[in-house]
Amino acid sequence: MDEIINWIQASTYTIIFTGAGMSTESGLPDFRSKNRGLWAKFNPDELANVHALNHNFEEFTNFYQYRLREIDSYKPHPGHLILGRWEQSRTIHGVITQNVDGFHHDAGNNNVMELHGTFRKFYCNVCKKEQDRERYLNGSNYCHHCGGPVRPGIVLFGEMLPEATFNQAELETFKAELFIVLGSSLTVSPANMFPMVAKEHGARLVIVNREATPLDRFADSIIQHKSIKEFLIEIDQQLK
Ligand code: APR
């Protein structure tokens, strides 16, 4: 841990990359943890994709209303708040996240790149007009403007990542001297390319994850014995 403290203190540009493991200590299930992940309960091939939006809209909507209610019942944990404070103090310079829960914004981070979109926005899949989140939660899942199907502002399997966000994340990764992964299995592309892009551009790579990842062999340091929250609290205390 001491070497990570030194790297954070020496780095002039540090980027954090988070996955679902960042939010499990808020209560939200991740996707692939053994027996606990969300995809152990639901099959993403049935629901979390464009086909379901177009051909199984009722099931699709029921699933995402369930996900929305679940996310709304949790909030950022102290680890999120530490990342928010670190950006304010320029200890870190941005957060690239695969998460759609909006917790990094709630915790005070501004430079947040949500590669997989966000549950904070809803829009019509036909006219693209933004829709009211509360109305969606209360069952109005057709566009008030054109009657088209309303969907969450997240990236579904089979869709492209938002181009502007992806390009910004790439530019931030190019600038990183230190790139810290928090709570991702690093199994979903193209998001899982960023740690390697950072490495190829000379950054040090730290991976904090309960389970092994396919990129561990490229990391300068791997932390598996601590949870994300424990890791951030411990580092934060030693940086003070
Ligand atoms: N501390 C440390 N590691 C944790 C913790 C924790 N408290 N909780 C979970 N983890 C680890 C798990 O061991 C797992 O390896 O976090 C990792 C989360 O991996 P995934 O569940 O695969 O989530 P993620 O990498 O974010 O998935 C990427 O897949 O389904 C899509 O769009 C979805 O954004 C998601 C993407």
Detailed description of the structure:
This is protein acetyllysine N-acetyltransferase. The active site is at residue 116. InterPro entries: DHS-like_NAD/FAD-binding_dom, NAD-dep_sirtuin_deacylases, Sirtuin, Sirtuin_cat_small_dom_sf, Ssirtuin_cat_dom. One of its GO terms (molecular function) is NAD-dependent protein lysine deacetylase activity. The protein has helices spanning 2-10, 44-47, 50-55, 57-72, 78-88, 103-106, 133-137, 163-175, 194-200, 228-239; strands at 14-18, 94-97, 112-114, 117-124, 130-131, 150-154, 178-182, 204-208, 221-223. It is of the alpha/beta class and 240 residues long. The protein has a single domain (2-239), classed as 3-Layer(aba) Sandwich (Rossmann fold), CATH 3.40.50.1220. The mean pLDDT is 94. The protein binds adenosine-5-diphosphoribose.
Brief overview:
With 240 residues, the protein is of the alpha/beta class.
Uncertain parts:
none
The radius of gyration computed from the alpha-carbon positions, rounded to a whole number of angstroms, is 18 Å
Provide mean pLDDT, rounded: 94
CATH topology title: Rossmann fold
| Count of discrete domains | 1
Whole-Å distance between the termini?
15 Å
* SSE sequence, one letter per element: HEHHHHEHEEEHEHEHEEH
User: What would the principal axes of the Cα set say about the shape?
Assistant: elongated
Strand order of the largest sheet: 3-2-1-7-8-9
Number of E-type strands = 9
Helix segment count? 10
Please state the second-level CATH architecture. 3-Layer(aba) Sandwich
Bound molecules: adenosine-5-diphosphoribose
Largest sheet: 6 strands, parallel
What percent strand?
15-25%
What is the CATH C-level name?
Alpha Beta
